[in-house]
Amino acid sequence: xxxxxxxxxxxxxxxxxxxADKREEAVDLVEDAAETISYxxxxxxxxxxxxxxxxxxxxxxxxxxxxxxxxxxxxxGDAVMIARNKDATWSxxxxxxxxxxxxxxxxxxxxxxxxx
Length: 116
Known about the structure:
Helices cover 29% and strands 41% of the residues. The chain is of the alpha+beta class.
């Protein structure tokens, strides 16, 4: 079988539709992260966290973390991280997924928002 790649679409570049979908996912994740930060900043219980944020080198926001298990369990979510630049401004967002698995006496499910 012979596969021929079009010279206008190199093998390492995603097709335009896929790139547009990834961009939309990233924009949605940043918007969700901004809502999470707004929620945390409006609650006076989190004021000590914001005093620490002034000295933070980075902030990780997980707008929706899901955890579930019955003997075997798992958790995960998509995350946005911003890091402090040398001039004290914040970087562009970096995106990644977090997850874990577990085993033991457990049953239930939980959804949460996390700021680290």
